[in-house]
Amino acid sequence: MNKLNLNKLFLSVLIAGSMLSGCDKKIDLAPESVTTEKDALTHQKGTERLLAGTYLSLFDASKGEAYAIPDLTTGLLSSFSTDYATGNLDSRNAIVLGIWSNNYKTISLANVIINKLAEHATFDLILQKQFIAEAKFIRALSYFNLLKYFGDRAMQNNMEALCVPLRLQAFDGYDGSQNIPRSTNSAVYVQIIKDLDEAIIDLKLKFDQNVDQHGRATKAAARALASRVSLYRRDYAKCIGYATDVLADQGYGLETSVTSVFPVNAAMSVDIPFSKEIIFGFPVSWNKDVSQYKFHDLYYNYGFLTVNSTFLTSYNVADQRRADFYVDPQNQNRNLKFSHPDLIDNLMMIRVSEIMLNKAEAEAYQNGVTASAVQLLNDVYQRAFPAGQKPALYTTADFSTKEILIDRILQERLWELAFESHSRFDYIRSGLKPNTVLPMDKYALPIPQREIDITNGLIKQNPGY
Questions:
Q1: Which of 39, 124, 191, 231 has the fewest Cβ atoms surrounding its Cβ within 10 A?
Q2: In DSSP terms, which residues pair with 383 in a beta bridge?
């Protein structure tokens, strides 16, 4: 297969079955210049192009402020606006609408592959199943994005509160009768895990090329995402099971140094390989496009995003994540997780260290203070220190209760996964306030007013807005 990296593989016009959001209308009859579903899905190359476009759409839904909001909420980062930290957001906010629309656009493209490929495809059946599995992974991640941001109390384990409309079928025309209300958090969680479990069966174990191995869905990527979803859902037994399978996969592993995971990228650096620690990410540095899909839109180098210096002092002074990594001494605006002057660092989405901490936390919740949970914590924490300066290993005797161990694991998540789009959700799901000013009824973002209006109120607004 031609690599599904971020080269310009989008169809000239998105196929007629795609939609820009959960409820936008589309034109039923495609002009002659528009590629139709049948055109796109009959042959392998057309399906590859559509799948590449679906990955690109997922990248568009995941980058920029959608990626930074969690750490802007908890104060790890600051920017010109404090709206995400205070909850001072209007339902007509363009960024909020973009998060909603971009994820539904991705879901719509994925649905075309999932629902329509078998009807039109004339190529190898095993490849068809693989492409459908990749689309199910993409759909699962898109719905998880939506659940985290828009699910009313989804992070607080209220399973019967409203989440988002659960649209699983490709559109064959629009007349308004297809409008659907918001499903419950429980229903969306169940569908995400269902998609991932089904995807695992047909996804590849590995790809031959580095960029494909880490930039496309594999069995490990689906299991890793399922471990995160299960942790958020408080299904600790499943989280442990998925994480155990991921950590047994020899295609991935913890690097000896955190600086090997995020290379410091100079101007003109391109085609940057992924480290073995990245289970899934977007290969931005491989993108040869000149459109908006070329950049990750995290504007550290320009001073639009600023690392909280007080947070940096919370690390041990010998911790490489403080001393050598997060802030470039020569440019205080530069975050060395996103060091490329041209904003084309590969965007990391799931790493081995997160899966280790997922398992450690779930193990502590499920079984209390265990040697395996403490060992996983040690492995991540010790890795952050240079030889000769490593702290003493934790033992089970250091944690008199499981709550103390869980608090220490959560602190390690904050240090290890800082600036990677986790902290807001880790705080809320753990029963902690993300900051002192964000009210609880603003933990979810507002449902875009446009969606309420065009469905004549069928889609309901979140409490607090």
A1: 124
A2: none
Instruction: Give the tokens for residue 26.
Output: 């589309």
pLDDT the model gives residue 30: 43
The rounded distance, in Å, linking the Cα atoms of 78 and 72 is 6
With b for 16 or more beta-carbon neighbours within 10 A and e for fewer, the 194-215 pattern comes to ebbbbbbebbbeebeebbbbbb
pLDDT at 252: 98
Q: Which residues of the chain have pLDDT under 70?
A: 1-35, 173-174, 290, 292, 324-329
**What residues does each domain of the chain span?**
37-73+82-288+299-433+441-454
Enter the pTM of the model.
0.93
Q: Whole-angstrom Cα distance, residue 421 to residue 438? A: 18
Q: How far is CA 20 from CA 71, 97, 110, in A?
A: 27, 11, 13
**Distance between CA 65 and CA 404 in Å, rounded?**
33
The CATH number that domain 37-73+82-288+299-433+441-454 falls under is 1.25.40.390
CA dihedral sign, ordered 80, 163, 60, 449 = negative
Q: What are the structure tokens assigned to 359, written together? A: 């398992």
For 41-158, where are the E strands, in sequence order?
77-78
**318: buried, middle or exposed (CB in 10 Å: 19+, 13-18, 0-12)?**
middle
